[in-house]
Amino acid sequence: MSREENSVNKGRILVVEDDEKLSVAVKQKLEKSAYQVILAGSAGEAEAVVRKENLDLILLETELPDGSGLEFCKRIRKTIFTPVVFVGETSDGDMIVDALNNGGDDYMAKPLDLRVLLARIESNIRRQRSYRKDVMKGEIIVFRQFKVDLSRHMVWKIDENGRNPRKLHLSPIEYKLLELFISNIGRLMTYEEIYQYIWKTDDLGDIRTVMVHVSNLRKKINYLGQDMIQTVRGTGYVFYDR
Length: 242
Hints:
- The protein has about 240 residues and is α/β, with parallel strands linked by helices.
- The chain has two domains: about 130 residues, 3-Layer(aba) Sandwich (Rossmann fold), CATH 3.40.50.2300; about 100 residues, Arc Repressor Mutant, subunit A, CATH 1.10.10.
- Helix content is about 40%, strand content about 25%.
- The chain has nine helices and 14 strands.
- The chain has a five-stranded parallel β-sheet with strand order 2-1-3-6-7, sandwiched between helices.
- β9 and β10 form a beta hairpin.
- α5 packs across α9 and α7 crosses α9.
- The longest helix has 19 residues.
């Protein structure tokens, strides 16, 4: 690799994994792709890194020597929105749902295919960087009792008289989902289209990842008991604003 290639830094990644052999293999793979990697073998070590470093992504084992990776993610989600990709011993659906509901953005089961892992990491970093950009400036969209400011990535719920706005706290992925749905009202959005839009990749990952995030968004924008996000079984979703 040339000196110029070595000088490129595509981002900073924290790998939280107590399996030293695996963490070193992941570190080598990421460094070959021009990422800077910080290793932590426990939640305590990881928390110290999170407090002082500006990270682009966290790769997080679900079970750590000093506690649960899920609980660690839940704690840090109070202050940071860095993408978190969980790594676990099982592909069980309940574990994936728990990981995503505790603040994770993605999940991969061991044994890891390092090529797929790299693709997932880069997809999540692209999504986060895209989210930070104000692509649509100064646009306000109102539907039902909700107001969306597309320039500031903020959502409010207002009362029946259009007053007393209350800010809704959406995760970055939930906001991007809402943005996608309100741009395609009444149109069937397939799992593939949603995955490509959110994670910026043509590779369709586990559709349960999409389903969990849509479920969380659905709960937050439930309108008088009416579901604005309709499921088309086995295919995707349709969003209605009336």
